[in-house]
Write a structure and sequence with these properties.
By secondary structure, the chain is an alpha/beta fold. Helices cover 41% and strands 17% of the residues. The protein is globular and about 50 Å long.
Length: 341
C-alpha cells in the first residue's frame, strides 16, 4: 500500500512538505487509544530489549536525530515501534535554518540530500515539551541531540553548547553533541581533537549525570575516527554515534545532473551503508567492549540491523528509509529481528 502511495502521491510533493504531512500522521498515532492499538501491532518482542547507558531500550532500533527536530512526534514514533527517539538537532537559539528548497530525494538511490541547517524552535521550547514527556509512562528512551547556533561564532561554540546542555540534559535520557553536520559553517572543524577535547569536557560537566555521546561524520579519515574514539573514552563520554550524513557523492545511480542540481548538503540513505559499517568497525576497535556505539547510516532492513549488532553496535538508528518504506518500517524490522531470534 505505502509503495503505491509514495510513487503516485508523496514522490510528487516537495520533500519537506511531505515530511510535515507525515508528521501529522505520526502525531495522530501517538494519541490515546490510537497509540495503544498501533503499539500492539508494532512493538518489539521482549527478547529484543537492550540495556545500555543505564537504560532499558525496548528495541535496538531507534530514530536518528533530524527526523523529530522539535520534540513533537516522540509518542507517535514509539507507537510505530521505535525503541528510542533521538530528537533534534536542537540549538540554544531558535533558528529557521537554510533557505528552501533544502531537502531533495534521490529515489533511484533510496537516498536524500539535505541542507536543513539545524532548523528548530530552540532549546527553551524543546525543554518545555521534554518536561511534559517525562511525566508520561508511555514514552521511549529519548535522546537529545544538540548543535551550535548559527548566529554564534565558532570560537564561542563551547559556551553555546554548554547553555543547551545545562537546560536539556536534566530532561534527556542521554545527550548527544553534534559536531558533524555539514550544513552549519565551521561545525565539522570542531571534530579536530585539539578543539573537540575542551568542548566535550565542558559539555560533560554541564550534562551532570546524563550520559553524553558525540556524533561523528563518515567523511573523517580512518585515523581521525580512531583518534576521536579514543578521545571520547579518555574524556569520559558514555558513547559515540557513527555516523552523520556524508558530503561524498560517489557511486550514485541518480543522474549526475540531478545530483548537481540538488547542490550542497549531507547525503543519507542506502549509499552510506558501507562507509557507516567501516566507521563502526574502526570505532569498535578503538574503544572498550562496554563502551556504547550507536550505528547509523544506510540502515533499511532487519538484516542491516543484525549486521550492525554483529559488528559491535550497541544500538542502531535509521531515518531516511522511513521516507521510502513508510510508517510500518520499524514494525517490519522488529518482526524481522524476532523471527531470527
Amino acid at each position: 500500500m505505502y509503495p503505491l502511495l509514495f510513487r503516485s502521491v508523496l514522490s510528487r510533493l516537495d520533500p519537506e512538505f511531505a515530511h510535515h504531512l507525515g508528521a501529522l500522521v505520526i502525531r495522530a498515532a501517538g494519541v490515546g487509544p490510537v497509540a495503544s492499538a498501533v503499539r500492539t501491532a508494532t512493538a518489539a518482542d521482549p527478547s529484543q530489549r537492550v540495556w545500555a547507558l543505564g537504560l532499558t531500550f525496548e528495541s535496538p532500533f531507534g530514530v536518528a536525530a533530524g527526523f523529530d527536530k522539535n520534540v513533537t512526534m516522540v509518542r507517535g514514533l514509539r507507537a510505530l515501534g521505535f525503541g528510542h527517539v533521538e530528537v533534534g538537532t536542537i540549538t540554544a537559539l531558535p533558528q529557521p535554518g537554510n533557505p528552501k528548497p533544502r531537502l531533495f530525494r534521490l529515489v533511484a538511490d533510496r537516498a536524500v540530500i539535505n541542507r536543513m541547517g539545524f532548523n528548530n524552535e530552540g532549546a527553551d521550547v524543546a525543554a518545555r515539551r521534554l518536561r511534559a514527556l517525562r511525566r508520561s509512562r508511555r514514552r521511549p528512551v529519548i535522546g537529545v541531540n544538540i548543535g551550535k547556533s548559527r548566529a554564534v561564532a565558532v570560537e564561542d561554540a563551547t559556551t553555546d553548547y554548554v547553555r543547551s546542555a545545562r537546560l536539556l540534559a536534566p530532561l534527556a535520557d542521554y545527550l548527544v553533541v553534534n559536531v558533524s553536520s555539514p550544513n552549519t559553517p565551521g561545525l565539522r572543524g570542531l571534530q579536530a581533537v585539539e578543539t573537540l577535547r575542551p568542548l566535550l569536557t565542558a559539555v560533560l560537566e554541564a550534562a551532570g549525570a546524563t550520559p553524553l555521546l558525540v556524533k561523528i561524520a563518515p567523511d573523517l579519515a580512518d585515523d581521525e575516527v580512531g583518534d576521536i574514539a579514543r578521545l571520547a573514552v579518555d574524556v569520559g563520554l558514555s558513547g559515540i554515534i557513527a555516523t552523520n550524513t556524508t558530503i561524498a557523492r560517489d557511486g550514485l545511480r541518480t543522474p549526475a545532473s540531478t545530483v548537481e542540481a540538488a547542490g550542497a548538503g549531507g547525503l543519507s540513505g542506502a549509499p552510506l551503508k558501507q562507509r557507516a559499517l567501516e566507521v563502526l568497525d574502526l570505532v569498535r576497535a578503538a574503544v572498550p567492549a562496554d563502551f556504547v556505539v550507536i550505528s547509523a547510516g544506510g540502515v533499511e532492513t532487519a538484516s542491516d540491523v543484525r549486521e550492525r549488532l554483529a559488528h559491535g553496535a550497541t544500538l542502531v538508528q535509521g531515518y531516511t528509509a522511513f521516507l521510502y518504506l513508510g510508517p510500518l518500517w520499524a514494525r517490519q524490522i522488529n518482526r524481522g529481528l524476532a523471527a531470527r531470534g
